[in-house]
Amino acid sequence: MFDLDGVLVDSETVWDEVRRAFATRHGGTWLPTSTRAMQGMSTPEWASYLVTEVGVRLTPDEVARGVVEEMATRYEAGPPVLPGAVEVVREVAKRHQVAIASSSPPVLIRSFLDATGLADVVGVALSSEEAGAGKPAPDVYLLAAEKLGVTASRCAAVEDSINGLRSALAAGMTVYAVPNPHFPPDPAVLAEVTVLRALSELPTALASTRPGE
After folding, report:
1. Is it true that domain 12-74 has CATH number 2.40.50?
2. Cα dihedral sign, 84-90-94-99
3. What is the pTM of this model?
């Protein structure tokens, strides 16, 4: 189970830039806690947060539509895929079923799959919009496991942010962290998972530890 933003795509800072600018244009006041609070939220959740907490003077639907349109524009030339990410996914897919469990909206997940050609090896690609609650709730991971036909305890998840790590842990998965250098996770949460220095270490890590054991 791969998270998308921050694990396969270098987009966490892009999301932050777009939401900050959008909020400012529409009367909002960015809070010191806003960036971390929204990491892992589903689209309906962060859109509501921008209205109720940041003070954006639009409806949540208008916020969601406007921000996602701006992100899609940023992706028109291709999503900012992290170096080596495609190769790692393909290497893992030689031995395991592969899924994407992301907080990104479906349109951006599809953009990533189209740009990388990974649709042939990614068996399930889910947005938390389709699963109910966003991260740190476990919903998107549990639904992805269900769609793959496996129990969550037999799955491994790869995450970069604190809310993503908490989500995968709550789902009962074996969790690997590739900490986001821009938004480092809480050390207390990192102590509960296997920390990788780079995504490229994942195939070797998976070979030495079977999820659920």
Report:
1. no
2. positive
3. 0.88
